Amino acid sequence: MSRAAKLTLAGSTIIAGGTIIFVHYAQQAEKTAMHAGVVRDIEQQRVKKERLADFEMQRALEEEYRKVQKVSDGEEPKT
Question: How far apart are CA 36 and CA 42, in angstroms?
Answer without folding.
Answer: 10
